[in-house]
Amino acid sequence: GQQLNQSPQSMFIQEGEDVSMNCTSSSIFNTWLWYKQDPGEGPVLLIALYKAGELTSNGRLTAQFGITRKDSFLNISASIPSDVGIYFCAGYTGRRALTFGSGTRLQVQP
Amino acid sequence: GAVVSQHPSRVICKSGTSVKIECRSLDFQATTMFWYRQFPKKSLMLMATSNEGSKATYEQGVEKDKFLINHASLTLSTLTVTSAHPEDSSFYICSARPVSSGTRDEQYFGPGTRLTVT
Fold first, then answer.
1. How many Cα atoms within 13 Å fall on the side-chain side of residue A20?
2. CA-to-CA distance for A9 and A31, rounded, in angstroms?
3. Contact yes or no for B43 and A102 at CB 8 A
4. Residue B51: which pLDDT band, with cuts at 50, 70 and 90?
């Protein structure tokens, strides 16, 4: 099946620092989505990207749909303690089912 | 908007019994709902795609007789874990795709159900 390689696997940063994570695939994706999951909760949609090259922001979050349609990145600026959680990239290839990345576990030191 | 609920949030059952988990889209209609399973510190694994009024489509390796899915209305899908065993213990999460999404691929997730089989 389709696979998404997400990196880094985990990050431990100081409050106020910027964070960057990315996903790559060997296949072309039509849509890229970024989710955040808190412990014991379902994923919450952060940003949705629908066009190659698209750059979208949501507050301190910025994500881009790679021009090759095989990658995407998510940046978080000026991190705060509540940014702690697991971030997943996910994408559609044309099927209506999402393929998820392996997740990036973010920890923020106050 | 786009709120998805799951019930129960946690359930503990004995081995051999069946458990039903409900997934509801509260403020939108969803022709398609999805069921995922997530192991500790792992990503979400798609189990099946549930379409309103038709049979669910199961992913390879997922037993359809073990995990019964019913999508009786545009706002409700249920997952029944039959004859549960300890290895079925997991975090089950549903998601729903709004009818109004059109060509946009949006999915909204429920809060998950923690199943523990003793």
1. 3
2. 22
3. yes
4. confident
